[in-house]
Model the fold of this input.
Amino acid sequence: MEELAGAAGITVRTLRFYRERKLLPPPRREGRIAWYDDHHLARLRTIAALLERGHTLTGIADLASTIESGRDVGELLGLGDDAAPATWSEETPVRLTPEALADYFAGEVTAENLAAALDLGYLGTDGDELVHISRRLLDVSAALVREGVPLAAVLGAGREVRKHTEAMAELFTGLVRDHMGPEAAGDPAASLERLRPLAKSVVDAELSMALDRLIRTARAKAEECATDSPEKRPRTGY
Done:
């Protein structure tokens, strides 16, 4: 315990306090000797970093509990214990420490948001690290938070988008099944892989046109309001 406290730059009393608050997992014991390892040191450094970023010990304990109860990276990526990394996905997973995640979403990393991200399948755990399933989703989510959208709202929107995109994926799967012949029936995964860029182009174009329509409507309403404002009305009288 003294060696671990020294390596972490804290006192033994602080280390005991962290253990009492369940911020630190118990050591491996051999008789009366307690052995700590790099996992414990990494946890202590994470605690220090999160404290510097304004998190409370209670909040850190909640985060640690949520992470430890989350699914691991193998489950997140749909892999077995001995499976090779997935090569069929276009998304690039991102490894993050908890403090790095806190930097991405300053002030928004709470146990509730972390649990929502784990439940949604955006995040998985791998030892002391978190793994985000998609670099693109991570960057877009962080950009939305920087624009002022609460992370909870971003995650809620992600859940709704998931419903619609899964429905669209099923639609294109039906096209393969119903119209692409015996070859597709024999190897539907290969046919879906060939259809993937076409499906993405359709969805991207339709979303772009839907946003065009919303933008035109918003601009028309803004112009109408500007015309109806008292400042824009022609003055009459003497």
